[in-house]
Design a protein that fits this description.
Blueprint: E1 4-8, H1 13-24, E2 28-33, E3 51-55, H2 61-71, E4 75-78, H3 92-113, E5 118-124, H4 147-166, E6 170-175, E7 178-179, H5 188-200, E8 207-209, E9 215-216, E10 219-220, H6 221-231, E11 240-242, E12 248-249, H7 250-259, E13 269-271, H8 289-295, H9 303-320
Parallel strand pairs: 1-2, 1-4, 2-3, 4-5, 5-6, 6-11, 7-10, 8-13
Antiparallel strand pairs: 9-12
Helix pairs in contact: 1-6, 2-3, 3-4, 5-7, 5-9, 7-9
The structure holds NADP nicotinamide-adenine-dinucleotide phosphate.
Length: about 325
């Protein structure tokens, strides 16, 4: 039987890698997106032709119910969210409605229809927020520190309630930062990969950075989406912390990125306090032992290989004119 997967946020980074994985496995893949966001489909490149587009606003509960009823998907992946966490301060209510509202509406549709659909909720390590232990695992308490994280916690518990009260196969992956050449440039890994490539080509002179000692658990998006899929293939719905379990500093990030194009970063990186983010001292790092044990999941792509690949892809894009030096700061994905 051909399985159907329904994905929100399909035009984002994870949507791309997840769709690619599912299509390779023979799934029929459908993307739920508001009509006004369909221009984003271009980001999926050749995959866009293989995906069924369901044009529905994610706030439209009857519209979502109708799509779920029509498709009867075996799996739903709820990935839609604001791209950049700091933006959630500008629109806390919109963030709550998108993140929590969409999860609630989709779970309600599955429950109401009484169909056998497995549900994945894209949770985030941001939910741990102000941590007082490292590494974090599935038992670490949530202490969200921004509207995005608070909305993700609400969506997570809504999903848990549907599992406990209504017996739905619903689970959440609490994912740490995961990157790729599809990350928007607002994120530090892509900002650095773009800068290293642009400087190598003489299109830029320097790179302004904040705290070089800040550390993150950075993984590869292509690895992390495999964990999402595996969570829906096992017998029991459970939640999983997904990360590499390794911390790397921003200094290691710039060193790796610049070295991959034969440059000495100390000649180009300028530390500017205006880019310092608050709360840099929190050490969010995963303990992915449960995922290793139950899902046989382990990251395959190392930090060094990931960053090198990102820089080389940006070098290729700049050389081919796919992105221009003048538009470096405007590139959406
Ligand atoms: P992303 O690249 O920013 O993609 C976000 C997706 O959500 C895009 O398809 C975007 O559509 C869509 N979206 C945004 N606002 C929307 C709205 N109002 N209505 C409908 N769709 C909307 O994010 P990602 O990196 O793939 O992450 C996927 C999920 O994992 C998100 O829920 C994120 O919070 C979570 N997560 C990500 C990370 C990470 O490190 N990447 C870590 C933990 C959790 P457009 O393309 O039209 O903008």
């Amino acid at each position: 039987m051909v399985k159907t997967a329904l994905i929100t946020g399909i035009t984002g980074q994870d949507g791309y890698y997840l769709s690619r994985l599912l299509l390779k496995q023979g799934y029929r893949v459908a993307g739920l997106m508001p009509p006004q966001r369909q221009a984003s489909l271009a980001r999926l490149g050749e995959l866009a032709n293989e995906i069924k587009v369901c044009a529905v606003d994610l706030t439209d509960a009857p519209g979502l119910l109708a799509v779920v009823e029509q498709l009867q998907p075996q799996e739903i992946y709820n990935l839609a969210a604001p791209s950049f966490v700091p933006d959630s301060w500008n629109d806390p209510l919109g963030t709550l409605d998108l993140v929590t509202g969409t999860a609630t509406r989709l779970l309600a549709a599955v429950r109401q229809l009484g169909i056998d659909t497995r549900f994945y909720q894209a949770s985030s390590s941001e939910m741990f927020g102000k941590v007082d232990c490292s590494p974090q695992d599935e038992d670490t308490p949530f202490r969200p520190m921004n509207p995005y994280a608070a909305a993700k916690v609400h969506a997570h518990w809504t999903m848990v309630h549907h599992r406990q009260r209504y017996g739905l196969f619903a689970c959440s992956g609490i994912l740490y930062n995961h990157e790729s050449s599809r990350r928007p440039p607002a994120f530090v890994t892509r900002k650095v990969s773009l800068a290293a490539a642009a400087i190598k080509l003489g299109l830029s002179q320097n790179l302004e950075m904040g705290n070089l000692d800040a550390k993150r658990d950075w993984g590869y998006a292509g690895d992390h989406v495999k964990a999402m899929w595996r969570m829906l293939q096992v017998d029991q719905p459970e939640d999983y912390v997904i990360g590499t379990g390794e911390l790397h500093s921003v200094r290691q990030l710039v060193t790796t990125a610049f070295e991959s194009v034969g440059l000495d970063w100390t000649r180009y990186v300028v530390v500017d306090p205006k880019f310092l983010r608050p709360d840099e001292h929190f050490q969010l790092v995963a303990n992915p032992a449960k995922a290793k044990r139950n899902l046989e999941w382990e990251p395959q792509v190392s930090f060094e290989v990931l960053i090198e690949k990102m820089v080389l892809k940006d070098l290729e894009r700049l050389q081919s004119g796919a992105i221009s030096a003048s538009g470096l700061r405007q590139i959406p994905h």
